[in-house]
């Protein structure tokens, strides 16, 4: 007698998106760039811009600070 082959189910690893949503215009056009000495967050549609000195943070943390600064009224 033979045994049935079992199907191998591979877990799906989720990855963070590289292009994010703009809080001002709502388009998915925000990219987070790491320059020599600062992080630059810029929207390709409405040109909303945010700069922050380099730290040990990941790009998604810098994007969240960008959204928080916009919602607090610090960016125009």
Written overview of the protein:
- The chain is an alpha+beta fold and 76 residues long.
- It has a domain of 53 residues: N-terminal domain of TfIIb.
- It is 17% helix and 28% strand.
- The protein has one helix and four strands.
- A hairpin with a 6-residue loop joins strand 1 and strand 2.
- The chain is elongated and about 75 Å long.
| Beta-strand residue fraction | 25-35%
Count every beta strand, where a strand is a DSSP E run of 2 or more residues.
Answer: 4
Order of helices and strands: EEEEH
Q: Strand arrangement, largest sheet? A: 1-2-3-4
What gyration radius follows from the Cα positions, in whole Å? 19 Å
* CATH C-level category of the domain at 19-71: Mainly Beta
How far apart are the first and last residues' alpha carbons, in Å? 73 Å
Uncertain stretches of 5 or more adjacent residues? none
Mean pLDDT: 92
By helix and strand content, what is the structural category?
Answer: alpha+beta
Count of DSSP H/I helices: 1
Could you give a short description of this structure?
By secondary structure, this protein is of the alpha+beta class.
List its traits:
1 helix, alpha+beta, four-stranded antiparallel β-sheet, 17% helix, N-terminal domain of TfIIb
Layout of helices and strands:
Elements: E1 19-21, E2 28-34, E3 38-43, E4 49-53, H1 59-71
Antiparallel strand pairs: 1-2, 2-3, 3-4
């Amino acid at each position: 007698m033979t045994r049935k082959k079992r199907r191998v189910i591979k877990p799906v690893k989720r990855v963070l998106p590289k292009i994010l949503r703009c809080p001002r215009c709502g388009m998915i056009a925000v990219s987070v760039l790491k320059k020599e000495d600062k992080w630059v967050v810029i929207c390709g549609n409405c040109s909303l811009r945010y700069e922050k000195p380099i730290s040990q943070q990941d790009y998604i943390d810098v994007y969240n600070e960008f959204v928080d600064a916009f919602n607090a009224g610090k960016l125009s």
